[in-house]
Automatic annotation (TrEMBL):
Family to which this protein belongs: Belongs to the peptidase M17 family.
Cytosol aminopeptidase domain boundaries: 300-307
Keyword field contains Glycoprotein: no
Chain segments annotated as coiled-coil in the UniProt record: none
Record-linked PANTHER family: LEUCINE AMINOPEPTIDASE-RELATED, PEPTIDASE B
GO molecular function annotations of the record: manganese ion binding; metalloaminopeptidase activity
PROSITE patterns (UniProt xref): CYTOSOL_AP
Protein's UniProt name: Cytosol aminopeptidase
GO CC term, one of those recorded: cytoplasm
One annotated GO biological process: proteolysis
Length: 454
């Protein structure tokens, strides 16, 4: 999305968009010339809240009826209007972001949309830069998730992190292939069956003043998930290019933190693997040793995401951050419980939970807290190892996965886990079908609130 789609209003020539409250519509309509009233009547436009109409009045104009501007107020209109420059009278607040996201297109594999740009002039000049950054971060998540696994493997995630580091003068460390076997045995075990060109790796980026508070962002980077030897059916494998959605979220959030120059010491960690099938694939029943030390009886090779996250969370904890946020397309159980739009939030910290939930509500980027229920911790017991990676029976699958991850987070470190879907199964205004960011804006707002004023 070009930066030119949102510009300061300096009185440039522009077509008009009327943003009207529902209870003010009748008065507004009465003040319009007959040609406008006739045009709206021909469309059977009644001024219902959330509706819009496009009409000609010397030039193309539009009306949007909304009680108050929210993120998606202008999103549908941005998709429908012809190319040109537009202005809305008065402040539009978060609706500017929806205007940008409504023009997102993923055109890597097809001819680009040539309908032209719809430029919005805004009186909130101070908020333009931040809005553009949020739109770019969301678009980056969508692009990464939408890209086919044949074009986005561990090496491409590594390259994305390196480009991000160059843009912000950060450092990158890569532990790759057989070098993982001793230091990060779970990442190595999950990714070892992939071909050499798609060897597993742990990608680490560090940025910021070491004297500032240290935070860690961890993202699951399974670039494609066959399910391993516990192979998925074809229907279950169809969307597994999106299994690196957690990594996409972590990269995008890191980009926002660095672009805003928040006073933190940032540590980004992405365990990047392909869960492939070959003669050396890890097996059901194998006992694996983690970087932290505890052994894990592998009861399901399709529960691989929590394994690679365990080693990455351990590495993050070794640097003693005061906060860890992890993102992962971790469980189908989360989707059964809450559907695609509502990512479960898991944390033992009441303040962090309240702040994230409040940010999600305020920004229309919601989360829903699920419990780290200690009573289910015994489901992780193994007869032969310290724990299993996936309990039998399927009960409380999202919770037991989060409890598994909690075992690899230092007890004195504040931590939250987001089980994101990273995919929108049906289109909504500003949110096309395909890859999408969930809880990204809420987490960024949380970090700004906590660290932006230091």
């Amino acid at each position: 999305m070009p930066d030119t789609l949102l510009q300061p209003d300096r009185g440039q020539p522009a077509r008009s968009i009327a943003l009207i409250a529902p209870d003010a519509y009748d008065a507004w309509l009465a003040a319009q010339p007959p040609r406008v009233r006739t045009a709206l009547a021909a469309q059977r436009f009644t001024g219902k809240s959330g509706s819009h109409a496009i009409y000609a009045d010397e030039d193309v104009q539009a009306i949007v009826v909304a009680a108050a501007p929210d993120v998606w107020t202008l999103a549908k209109l941005a998709e429908a209007l012809p190319a040109g420059t537009y202005r809305v009278g008065g402040a539009i607040g978060p609706a500017a972001l929806g205007w940008l996201l409504g023009q997102y297109r993923f055109d890597r594999y097809r001819r680009a949309d040539d309908t032209g740009a719809r430029i919005l002039l805004t009186q909130d000049a101070a908020g333009i830069e931040e809005t553009l950054r949020l739109a770019a971060a969301t678009g980056w998540v969508r692009d990464l998730v939408n890209t086919g696994a044949g074009d986005l493997g561990p090496a491409e995630l590594e390259a994305a992190a390196e480009r991000l580091a160059r843009d912000h003068q950060a450092s990158v460390t890569i532990t790759r292939g057989d070098a993982l076997a001793t230091g990060y045995p779970l990442i190595h075990a999950v990714g070892q069956a992939a071909v050499k060109e798609r060897a597993p790796r742990l990608i680490e980026l560090e940025w910021g003043d070491p004297a500032h508070p240290r935070i860690a962002l961890v993202g699951k980077g399974v670039v494609f998930d066959t399910g391993g030897l516990d192979i998925k059916p074809s229907a279950g494998m169809r969307l597994m290019k999106k299994d690196m959605g957690g990594a996409a979220h972590a990269l995008a959030l890191a980009s926002l933190v660095m672009a805003a120059r928040l006073p933190v010491r940032l540590h980004l960690l992405i365990p990047a693997v392909e869960n492939a099938i070959a003669g050396n694939a890890f097996r059901p029943g194998d006992v694996l040793r983690s970087r932290l030390g505890p052994t894990i009886e592998n009861t399901n090779t399709d529960a691989e995401g929590r394994l690679i996250l365990a080693d990455a969370l351990t590495r993050a904890g070794e640097a003693h951050p005061e906060l860890i946020l992890d993102f992962a397309t971790l469980t189908g159980a989360a989707r059964v419980a809450l559907g695609p739009d509502l990512p479960p939030l898991f944390t033992d910290d009441e303040t962090l939970a309240a702040d994230l939930l409040a940010a999600g509500t305020a920004l229309d980027d919601p989360l829903w807290r699920l419990p780290l229920w200690d009573g289910y911790d015994e489901m992780l017991k193994s007869d032969i190892a310290d724990m299993v990676n996936a309990p039998d029976g399927g009960f409380a699958g999202a919770i037991t996965a989060a409890l598994f991850l909690r075992r690899f987070v230092p007890k004195d470190t504040i931590w939250a886990h987001m089980d994101v879907f990273a995919w929108r199964p049906s289109a909504k205004p500003g949110r096309p079908k395909g890859g999408d960011a969930y809880a990204l804006r809420a987490c960024y707002a949380l970090l700004k609130r906590r660290y932006g004023t230091r």
